[in-house]
Amino acid sequence: GRSIQVLVADSVERDLQSEVYFALPSTPVGERRFRNLSMGPGEMSIHWGLKEQKLPSAEFRYGSRSYKGTTTEECMKAGELTGVAEYNNSCKERIYQSTKREPLGKP
What's the pTM value of the predicted model, to 2 decimals? Predict the structure, then answer.
C-alpha cells in the first residue's frame, strides 16, 4: 500500500479513488526511457539500450572491400587436383566405404 497523509475530510470516496485524490508523482525525465509502460497505444517498443543508439548512414557497408578480380571460377580451380596430386588423393580416398559404394564421376 501507499503511505498517505490522513486528512480531516477522509471519506470512503477518497479511499476508493486514491489515484484521483492522492496521485503518484510522475516518473523523472531521466528515468522514463527505462520504463516499459511509457508506450502509448500503437507505439513500437524499443529496448532502452537501443533508444539513443546512433546508426550508421545508409551508404555504410560492413566488411572489407576486395579487388574485383577474384571470381568463383578461380576459387574452384584453386582446390582442383591434377596429375600426381589427384592420384595420391584418390589412393587416400579408397579406404572410405562411401567411395567404394558410390564412386563420384566414374562409370
Answer: 0.28
pLDDT of residue 107 exceeding 60: no
Angle at 27 between CA 33 and CA 10, to 5 degrees: 155
- Of 53, 16, 55, nearest to 33 by C-alpha is 53
Cα separation, 90 vs 20, whole angstroms:
86
Task: Specify whether the CB–CB gap between 2 and 9 falls below 8 A.
Answer: no
Closest CA to 36 of 23, 49, 55: 49
Measured CA angle at 11 (ends 10, 17), to 5 deg: 105
Phi, psi of 31 (to 5 degrees): -100, -10
pLDDT in tens, 2-50: 777 666 677 788 888 888 888 888 888 888 777 766 667 787 877 878 8
Strand runs labelled E in 18-93 = none
